[in-house]
Amino acid sequence: MSEEEARAWLQAQFDVPCETWDRLERYVAILLSAMDEQNLIAESTRPHVWTRHIVDSAQLLIHSHGAGDGEWIDLGSGAGLPGIVLACLSDRPMLMVESRRKRIDFLNGLINELGLAHARVFGGRVEVVPPTRAAVISARAYAPLPKLFASALHLSEKSSLWVLPKGRNAQIELEAARPAWQGVFHVEPSVTDADSAIIVATGLAPVGKKKGRP
After folding, report:
1. Which of 58, 114, 181, 191 sits at 20 to 30 Å (Cα–Cα) from 20?
2. From CA 85, how far away is CA 27, in angstroms rounded?
3. Nearest in space to 169 (alpha carbons), one of 188, 149, 206, 195
4. How does pLDDT run across 170-199, given as a tens digit for each residue?
5. By three-state DSSP, how is residue 164 classified?
6. Do 60 and 165 meet the contact criterion of CB atoms below 8 Å apart?
7. CATH number of domain containing 195
8. Cα→Cα distances 50→9, 24, 58, 85, 167, Å
C-alpha cells in the first residue's frame, strides 16, 4: 500500500471530513517533528507513516463495530498509535495508558493541540489502572498475549472486545495463550502488511474460571 493508497483507503472506509483530515495531518507533522527528540517510531517507517502507522491504527475501528457503548482503552500508547488516530476518527471515549514520562507529556500535548476532548491519558503501568469495564481494549506492540491478558483483565468484562494487532507470529502467540486463557478468538488479516494480523477476542477469562465479569 502506497501513501496515496493509504489516504484513499481512509477516505473510502471512514468518509473522513475536512476537520478530521486536518487533525490527522497535524498529528503526523507533530509525530515526525518530535522524532528529533524521542524515538517515537522507527526511522525506516518515516517515508511510509500513513501506511505503517495511520492506516495500521485506523483499521482497528473496522473490527470494533460489534462493541457496546463505553470507553476504548489503549494499552502502552507510546506515540499515540493507535490511540490518537482512533480518537481522531471516532467520538468514543479514549483512555490511553502509558508509563513513560516523556510519552505521557507527548500524549497530553497531542490531546490539547488536536482538541480531542474525549481522550485522556493514565500515567502509569497497566496493572495499576483502576478496574473498569472497557468496551474495547487495544494494544499495539505492548506485550505477548499471555502477559497482555494478565495485566489488563481487570479492565474488561464479558462483553469487552479485545482488538490486538500482531506481527507474523500472531497465530503462534494465540496458540501459546490458549492453555491459560479461554474466550472466543479469531484472527483477521492486516490491510497494511500481508504478514501481520489482528487478533480479536471476546469473553476472555482464565481457563477454569467464569468468562469476564458479569
Report:
1. 191
2. 8
3. 195
4. 888 889 898 999 999 999 999 998 888 999
5. strand
6. yes
7. 3.40.50.150
8. 10, 10, 10, 11, 18
pLDDT > 70? residue 213:
no
pTM listed for this prediction: 0.92
Q: Give me the number of domains the chain comprises.
A: 1
Residue 64 within any structural domain of the chain: yes
pLDDT tens, residue by residue, 3-55: 999 999 999 999 999 999 999 999 999 999 998 788 888 888 889 999 999 99
CB 96 within 8 A of CB 121: yes
Alpha-carbon gap, residue 199 to 60, rounded angstroms: 10
Supply 37's cell numbers: 527528540
**Structural domain of residue 139, as residue ranges?**
3-206
The answer to the question of residue 212 being in a domain is: no
Cβ-defined contacts of 93-97 (< 8 Å, 24+): 93/118, 93/119, 94/118, 94/119, 94/120, 95/71, 95/119, 95/120, 95/121, 95/122, 95/129, 95/134, 96/120, 96/121, 96/122, 97/73, 97/121, 97/122, 97/124, 97/126, 97/129
Is residue 180 included in any domain, yes or no? yes
